[in-house]
Specification:
alpha/beta; four-stranded antiparallel beta sheet; 20 strands; 35% helix; binds magnesium ion
């Protein structure tokens, strides 16, 4: 008998019909004899709608009260799913995050999990019930309701799987698994049967929106096997797990893109020690996350510096840079939103050379200009004009023959 944690996202429980479908799926797993814990998100756009409602009242709603408000979304899902399961004759019980002892720190709207209780869940499982737990929420030591940040239900699922030492944590999605590229852009993109935690993490940071990065990190640290699989069919999806020797044989596992970044160029700053330090510590202090950075060769004692930030933080970043400009006196500051980051990812890069050259060649053949380049051990990213992004992804996918992945070539 296996212990399985199953996580269903908001789109899987968006209405009553879908909720019943999920219940049927869960009931089937239970019938197979497995112990099942289900973690659910709020139905459909509930969380967005609640945020919008609060914003109609004020631009800066109180964080504590936002948590009280947002936690209601998931509470609807758990109760409705329990009702659906019982209507199908499958015994089930719903619990909120605080009820099962998900304890977090005090940071409202972005809390971190510090502990997960397991006794309440175990007792209910031992009574033969399917246990349904609200994702995205917990409580701090003072029993204040907290939430884990957008997409936090993934984290709840992995944390519960770790606490219960579950055999697998299944993520049910409206896609069939993790693909070599977004199938909406690359028609012959292939589903990967396995992928390593590190590759999945790089994919998440490079723009693939399959799994929440924090939850993958958590799974890696606690050695929880993740199975990303489709909600509305029975196909096997993608297993996310520790790296194996076989994975290294595959040079590239996927091509991703991220259109949510913007580039800031600071032109003509003095080419002397301490300049980068001033600029980037100011950005850091303002809480702006900087992704890629390039600095060109100094000319006449000056140099240009470009970096990318999340598009949602562009305004804030520009404010910081403009402020710093009073001291640095650059020749100009330019913001560019027409950019996209395209990345290739694969643990095989560690043992294979020539990956960057091949990627750049694919772009050159398409006459796509590269604006910035950055690399990590298992990822190469370039910034291109956003109008070129689909062509870039398709060309790279083709160059690395990713449509043949798994078929020994
Ligand atoms: N309902 C929350 C959100 O929309 C949490 C989640 O879906 O994982 O961000
Ligand atoms: Mg949601």
């Amino acid at each position: 008998m296996a212990l399985i944690v199953q996580k269903f996202g908001g789109s899987s429980v968006a209405d009553a019909a879908k909720m019943l479908e999920v219940a049927r799926r869960v009931a089937k797993n239970r019938k197979n004899g497995d112990q099942v814990v289900v973690v659910v998100s709020a139905p459909g756009d509930t969380t967005d709608n609640l945020i919008e409602l609060a914003r109609q009242i004020t631009d800066e709603p109180d964080d504590r009260e936002m948590d009280v408000l947002l936690a209601t979304g998931e509470q609807q899902s758990i109760a409705l799913l329990a009702i659906a399961l019982k209507s199908l004759g499958c015994d089930a019980i719903s619990f909120t995050g605080p009820q099962v002892g998900i304890v977090t720190d005090d940071v409202h709207t972005k809390a971190r999990i510090v502990r997960v209780g397991d006794s309440k869940i175990r007792s209910a499982l031992n009574l033969g019930k399917v246990v349904i737990v609200a994702g995205f929420q917990g409580e701090n030591k003072e029993h204040e309701i907290t939430t884990l940040g957008r997409g936090g239900s993934d984290l709840t699922a992995v944390a519960i799987a770790a606490a219960l030492k579950a055999d697998v944590c299944e993520f049910y999605k409206d896609v069939d698994g993790v693909f070599t590229a977004n199938p909406a852009i690359v028609k012959n993109a292939k589903k990967l049967s396995v992928i390593s935690y590190d590759e999945m993490l790089e994919m998440a940071s490079a723009g693939a929106q399959v799994l929440n990065a924090r939850s993958v990190e958590f799974a890696k640290n606690f050695d929880i096997k993740i199975h990303v699989r489709p909600t509305f069919n029975e196909k096997e999806g993608t297993i996310v797990m520790h790296e194996t020797k076989a994975m290294e044989k595959v040079v590239i596992s996927g091509v991703t893109y991220n259109k949510n970044e913007a580039k800031i160029t600071v032109r003509g700053v003095p080419d002397q020690p301490g300049i980068a330090s001033i600029l980037f510590s100011k950005l850091g202090n303002a809480g702006v996350n900087v992704d890629m950075i390039i600095q060109n060769i100094g000319e006449k004692g000056h140099s240009d510096m470009s970096f990318t930030v999340d598009r949602s933080e562009l305004k804030k970043a520009m404010k910081v840079v403009t402020e710093a400009a009073k001291k640095l006196k650059p020749a100009g500051v330019i913001a560019d939103e027409q950019i996209a980051k395209v990345s290739v990812i694969g643990v095989g890069m560690r043992s294979h050379s020539g990956v960057a050259a091949k990627m750049f060649q694919a772009l050159a053949e398409e006459k796509i200009n590269i604006q910035m380049i950055s690399t990590s051990e298992i990822k190469i990213s370039v910034v291109v004009n956003s109008k070129d992004v689909n062509r870039a992804v398709a060309a790279i996918h083709k160059k690395f023959k990713l449509d043949k992945i798994g078929s020994k070539s």
